[in-house]
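To whoever is covering the structure queue this week,

Two jobs came back overnight. Logging them here so there's a record in the thread.

Job A:
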Amino acid sequence: MQEFKLNKFTEILTKYWGYSKFRDLQEEIITSVFNGNDTLGLLPTGGGKSITFQVPAMAKPGICLVITPLIALMKDQVENLQKKGIKANMIFSGMTFREIDLALENACFDRELKFLYLSPERLGTELFREKIKGMKVNFLVVDEAHCISQWGYDFRPSYLKVADIRELIPKTPVLALTATATPEVVDDIQNKLLFKKKNVLKKSFERKNLTYYVKHTDDKYADLLKLAIHNKGTGIVYVRNRKKTVEISNFLKTNKISADYYHAGLEMEIRNKKQEAWKSGKCRVMVSTNAFGMGIDKSDVRFVVHIDLPDSIEAYFQEAGRGGRDEKRAFAVLLVNETDRSKLAEQVDISFPPIAKIKMVYNALGNYLQIPISAGKDSTNDFSLIDFVNTYKFDVLTAYNSLKLLEQEGYIALTDEIETPSKLHFIPNREYLYNFQLKYQKFDAVIKLLLRTYSGLFNDYVKIDEAFLAKHANIEKDILIKYLYELNKYDILEYLPRKKSPFILYTENRLDDRAIIFSQENYRERKRRLIIRIEHVLNYAFSNNKCRNQLLLLYFGEKNPYRCGVCDVCVQRNELGLSNFEFDSILDKIKELLSEESLELNVLIDKIESDSERISKEKIVKVIQWLLDHGKISYNKHNKLKWAHIIY
């Protein structure tokens, strides 16, 4: 029976995805969840997470619910499934009540619908809780599962609603997936998702083909240019702000490097064109904020460069991991200088405005969106941060970080900027529509054109192209749109014109700002954990005595990770002519001895020699000199060596 199931999984993989075999660990995760086990799958970026739930869902009757906060990725996966002939739908903030209601109805009654993607803030609504009772759910998938943990780097309180949903579908197994999680977060995910028993399937985060390199430089642009010239393949350059994406891409183009820029503020059509040019190889280097790269299926990225320090090791690891997915050699390069240290430290105060200021932003938000006190729960509201801060004279970073903290306390939910195409849906049945056409002849031609051009208009919302329709109707586009709005008023159809906007969802009714309970304990704890994450980033960027690969793998809890031999630290150590074992043994002994007391050079050498006869004095001296050169040890005023306690 088990063999039959495995063959079935491979058959589905080949039929819909065109692969003849699974990647490492995919099959184990699929088998585990298919057999009804709550499962946490840890797969690094590019490890093929989506296959681990899409394949078993196709092998079992019912619908798979997928919880994900990444709307752009959600849309991408739904469109890819639809292209394969697999019925899939999604529900996210920004959809109308009628859209959401119809999507949930289809999830209950359309037996061909296999996947329903949901943003986590929809889980707490009464409408969803009522509708899920009528669904035959085969699997509950929680993507980006680290978001459920307050100890994670991207906590979202709406994820905590997943546990409540489990009570409504108690026999449905959960598959939690993430690319980055520390051991503490791994345990927390399973506890928060009410796993019946601990079950973690983990692929090592080790990337043997990816060389990590930190370059200390006073001229980042010059070093970036050298790297782009030396590495002929495709690359990504990550920066913190939109202005810098334009500046650096222009610098590269001036120096004859094919480059472009990308950020979330660009129109969707422009972003798509830029992304496609990069994927096809017409553009070689993309300079971007972290908006670029999520879910992009491009395996031959040869280098990923960070111009600015990331906020966390998790973010760096995910972004760097977009290099070398084809298993060929790729480079993850971090360019740093001393000013980066102070800039990142400033992030702590910027990220945590005073609580009084946060309450002021909350009150202003309610006024800006015209939401009365004690109202607004589950309402979705178009929101322009720039217009908001200009209206109330807030600093943009103060306002943004205040909103993020309000989200973490569960008062609101934020979404990224979403661009939705024009859609429409016929509301009445065909008989009613026919009678309407007889009564109102002026709409007859437009209704017939819609029905001839698009299918499924009575069952769901369908994307439309107003310019295409106007051309075929031989009328101006504005006139066509006027007809659609009029039909909307008659309740013949619901027309949703194209728009682009971020949204704010009120997860609770608006409160008087004096009634907001902002936990001082949570506030201090989140600030403390941000400081810890920043210290880890600074340690990675400014330490120079431990292999970069080891630093990353130890952070994610891997035991005894290997020294890669090819990162910037390893290359310098290799020049000493010592084996890994010899260098580490001498280093550990020096640290042990100097942590206890300061010692003269000859005394230190004698102590190490007496402990290990096989290590020569020459090798001990080489390691001591290396540690002196890298600031790990130094001489005190008594000319004795001491261990340098560096605080990052």
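Job B:
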Amino acid sequence: MMIMSISSHELQQSKNLNVPDKQNFCNFPSLNFPMRTFIGLVVLLTPAVALVQENKLTVVYPPANHQTNTDKIFFLGTAPPSGEVYINNQLINRSQSGHFAPSFPLQMGKNVFTVRHQNQEIQMQVTRVDVQQQTPTQLGFIADSLTPQVDIARLPGEEICFSAIATSNAKIQVNLGQQTVNLTPQTQQISLPSNAAIYIDENQPITQNIPGKYQGCTTLTTSGDIKQPEFQLTLNNQTITQVSPGKIHSLSPAKLPVVEVIAEAGVARTGPSTTDSRLTPLPKGVRAAVTGKQGDWLRLDYGGWIHRPETRTIPTAIPPRSHIRSIISQQLPTATEIVFPLQVPVPVSIEQGDRTFTLTLHNTTAQTDTIRLDDNPMIARLDWQQIAPETVQYTFNLKNDQQWGYNLQYQDTSLVLSLRHPPTISRRQQRPLSGLKILLNAGHGGEELGAAGPTGYLAKDLNLVVTKLLRDELVRRGALVVMTREDDRDMSLVARQRMIDQIEPAIALTFHYRFLPDDGDAENTKGVSSYWYHPQAHSLAVLLQNRLVQDLGRSSFGVYWNNLALTRPHTAPSVLLELGFMSNPDDFELAMNPQEQQRLARVLAEGIVEWFSSQ
């Protein structure tokens, strides 16, 4: 980590030379993903792509013997500008520097392609795999098609559903103790592609025909039982049975287990998987009763799901409930701290709006008659209401539209909320960012390569080049710049998040370059895009996007709300910028142009000055 205040740094030009970023999407596509599902633009690229040799035909994507389930594939590479490049005897378009990214259709099975430039030739094989569910040709169930696949627990009266893929036109039922559940054919299914499908304009519902798909539901009427569902298939007077891998447990409402969050910030979700949306993180120490289980996931009594390893069971504890009475605040040099005394750490939710910050306490009943809140730079008034039994909502009415971040933690059983004050913004023309701490994060690094452009040049190197140039521009304008990395090193997403939380900059910016999935139109898809998660970062994301498009003339790939590791920190407005596509020849040429790199850094710095000046 380095903080700079005055001196500029010489930029070292990177060598002429981007799996998953885990929660970012600027990389290669996964090689194995469910039908019509775009899993994430990531792939483990090993060994590292080497430098393209001068005067050599090179294809950097797809990798050798690539497998995909898409109906087309693009070829990313380069060759000397003179002469022509053919793929399977078809002349392809190239950029001024000789880069190319055409797409070709794929037939099921093996597809052989010949890439040719003058007397150079490369042969490649791409295999399109069929991941459609097949109906069994013999009497029986498709392997791993019985659900539930994992143990589940629900309260009496809740719905439990079962499904199977089996021989068509059969009678299917599930025996669950003394209950019998009939499953009916559901051959037509409506599925949704992954969230990332929005980036290739394929996020619409998909109608699928799955012969032999059966489903049915029931409710549990008693509590305390553990049952193993037995599936029974009958056809032409033949019957076979098979038990599901997961068992069914009916919880007793009078004996609900209680857990405590042991992670620093427990990840609460809308459902029992990492594909379900995130809710407000639960501070360490939160206690709640468990009202449902699914595999290693627990449903807490306020509605959120949490991964079991982030909790510990509290033996003999009763479902936590609390009252809340008086509330006190104090003004610190850089934040206002509000303390909510509680009897037990309860689950919480946060919602940020225009000039409002709303804290919801679950499993809590208000007996609040007294609140101390002196005048301060940020908060105009604090209001509260009991919006439902055992749910209390506190709304901070703010003096300004812009919010600057918050911290939330339990100290014993008292909840402590810190709302950051606005930073002191200089109005000096020469050094308008004087005293402002800005964190810059160059994506990837070390073994985390990121995407590769047509020449094999890596996004991790390009990210660092641009970030250093921006650092120098910001320092000249008076900013105190903190870099997450200044060289090619491994650095986890958690470590980068921790730096933002510990340093508490005025803003945090992350830089990446993108890559498309196999069925993306790499030749024509280009442009810059910006990403935000908390409302406090929205205006910054929009302004920087507009500056890049209007001042640099770049194509716009859009502004997105997105659940990314480096947009999630809430201690400061945090924005991630994708500065172009490594998979697009024209974007890549702009990205590699030193003059354009300087223009990009200057426009970003001017945009940051403009944003702070408007606050």
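Note for Job B: The chain has five domains: 2-13+425-613, 58-128, 152-192+204-250, 257-313, 335-420.

Please reply-all if you pick these up so we don't duplicate work.
Q.
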